[in-house]
Specification:
Layout lengths: L2 H8 L7 E3 H8 L3 H9 L6 E3 L2 E5 H10 L15
Antiparallel strand pairs: 1-3, 2-3
Helix pairs in contact: 2-3
Length: about 80
């Protein structure tokens, strides 16, 4: 890769490049396991490219915007508190 090609790749806005599973988890401040669970439930859009998960920042932002303002944690500890 030439220096010019590297600069072009590095200059791509973050919203336009695909994020890895770890990067997506960092953006959402979730574990990678939790992100995978949301993908399985089709709450977050993701694609497998080259045997690895990839995410668009716009899809992560949409997930965040559509998330309830008060998460329902009832039953998390089993006592409903």
């Amino acid at each position: 890769m030439t220096m010019r090609e590297k600069l072009e790749v590095d200059s791509v806005p973050a919203g336009d490049r695909l994020l890895t599973l770890r990067e997506a988890a960092d953006v959402l401040r979730l574990s990678t396991r939790t992100v995978r669970e949301y993908v399985q439930r089709r709450e977050i859009k993701g694609r497998i490219i080259g045997k690895r998960w990839r995410f668009r920042r716009a899809d992560l932002d949409a997930f965040f915007e559509n998330a309830p303002s008060a998460w329902d944690f009832a039953g998390k500890r089993g006592d409903g508190d």
